[in-house]
Amino acid sequence: MDKRKVLDILPSRNKKDLSEWLKNYPHIKLVSRDDSITYASAIKEALPKAEQISDKFHLIKNLLDSISQYIKRKYPRKLVISSRNDDMCKSDIGNQNNVIVIDNRNLKNRIREEKISAKWNLMMEIKKTQSWDI
Questions:
Q1: Is 4 helix (H, G, I), strand (E, B) or coil?
Q2: pTM above 0.90, yes or no
Q3: Which residues contact 132 (CB under 8 A, 6 or more apart)?
Q4: pLDDT in tens, 40-96
Q5: Got the DSSP string for 22-80?
Q6: What DSSP string runs through 70-116?
Q7: Nearest Cα to Cα of residue 35 among 12, 54, 57
Q8: Is 4 exposed, middle or buried (0-12, 13-18, 19+ CB in 10 A)?
Q9: Residue 11's closest CA among 21, 1, 26?
C-alpha cells in the first residue's frame, strides 16, 4: 500500500484460490479490499494477523450511501411547494403525515443549503465516533 502498487489481478473470486495466492505473501500486514465476505474470509484464513481495510472507492461509496439513507430518514417523502405567498391551508394537503409545505421563493438555494448542512452534520456525527481528521 505504501507503494500504491497492484500486486496481481486474480482471475477468480473463489475463496480457495485467493487463500492459496495470499499464502505466497506471508509478509503482508495490511490488505485493502472491497466488501466481499469471500475476500474477508480468505484473508483471515491465509493471513490471520493482517489488518483488513476497505478500499478507497468502497469507503467513499459506503459513506455516500449512509448520507443518502440519513437524508431519506430525516426528510419527508413528500414536499408540497406552494406558489402562493400565504401558507397552504390544511384542506390543500388533507391530514397527511410526513408532509412539509414550502413556498417557492429562493427554493433552490434553501434546498441546496439544507442538503449541505445535513451532509456536514452527518460527517460531524461520524467524526465523533471515529478518529478522523476533517
A1: coil
A2: no
A3: 126
A4: 999 999 999 999 998 889 899 999 999 988 888 887 666 665 555 445 444 455 555
A5: HTT-TT--EEEE-S-HHHHHHHHHH-TTSEEEE-HHHHHHHHHHHHHHHHHHHS-SEEE
A6: HHHHHS-SEEEEE-SSSPPPHHHHTT-SSEEEEE-TTHHHHHHHHHH
A7: 54
A8: exposed
A9: 21
Q: Which amino acid is at 58?
A: H
User: Percent of the chain, pLDDT > 70?
Assistant: 71
Phi, psi dihedrals of residue 79, rounded to the nearest 5°: -110, 130
CA dist., res. 22 & res. 32, Å (int): 13
- Quote the CA–CA distance of 119 and 128 in Å, as a whole number: 14
Cell numbers for 101: 409545505
DSSP state of 127: H
Q: Which residue has 478500499 as its cell numbers?
A: 55
Query: What's residue 105's pLDDT?
Result: 64
Q: How far apart are CA 66 and CA 63, in angstroms?
A: 5
